[in-house]
Write a structure and sequence with these properties.
By secondary structure, the chain is an alpha/beta fold. It has a single domain, classed as Purple Acid Phosphatase, chain A, domain 2 (4-Layer Sandwich), CATH 3.60.21. Helix content is 13%, strand content 29%. A hairpin with a 2-residue loop joins strand 10 and strand 11.
């Protein structure tokens, strides 16, 4: 698990955080016998099709320019982000070009880039809106649309990552409502198989 900051300098040349991330990811990639899964956590999403900050989380954005090539180079398997108060799963892609989609049994088979997850629902689902049409790299996205739902309390959610072994990782998004009579939506589940 590598934790990075999206709130500190990552854009200037010879940045210490970027240099540290490169070295740490290289060390993990060279130690796959003991580190079979590499997960990067950062506050702001690498990819998100949320309309409010789309330009900051779309292909070509500064955060992606700083980290995407090293994540691909060193075989990062999964990224965990938040910031937007919604949920979105992004297919493995490189600068917006999808390199893996789910198989018929819900698995990404040996993807060449990380699966990106934006799980900003610990702070409650708020009225986020999405760009239309959905970008090809956006696999699943969900947010509460308060204009179509009456008398609803906040939705929350969290993710469960289960590493069964060195070649199989399962993820499930678990939605929660503090209104017991409301079923928010079907949770998202997928696996990565190496």
């Amino acid at each position: 698990m590598v934790s990075l900051s999206s709130e500190h300098d990552y854009w200037s040349p010879h940045n210490p955080q970027v240099a540290w991330a490169e070295a740490d990811l290289a060390a993990a990639a060279n130690n796959r016998e003991n580190v079979p899964w590499i997960v990067v956590a950062i506050h702001r999403p690498f990819y998100s099709s949320d309309k409010s900050e789309y330009e900051a989380h779309a292909p070509g954005a500064p955060l992606l320019k700083a980290f995407e090539s090293m994540m691909v180079k060193h075989g990062v398997d999964l990224t965990l982000t938040g910031h937007e108060h919604a949920y979105e799963r992004v297919h493995p892609n490189i600068n917006g070009t999808v390199v893996s989609t789910l198989s018929s049994n819900g698995e990404y088979i040996a993807p060449k880039a990380p699966v990106h997850l934006m799980i900003g629902s610990a702070g409650a689902m708020q009225e986020e809106s999405w760009v239309q049409p959905r970008p090809v790299w956006s696999a699943v996205r969900w947010a509460v649309n308060l204009s179509t739902v009456e008398h609803i309390e906040d939705f929350y959610g969290f993710g469960v990552v289960t590493c069964r072994n060195a070649s199989y990782l399962k993820f499930e998004f678990v939605p929660i409502s503090n209104n017991a009579s409301v079923t928010p939506f079907v949770s998202d589940t997928f696996a990565i198989r190496k």
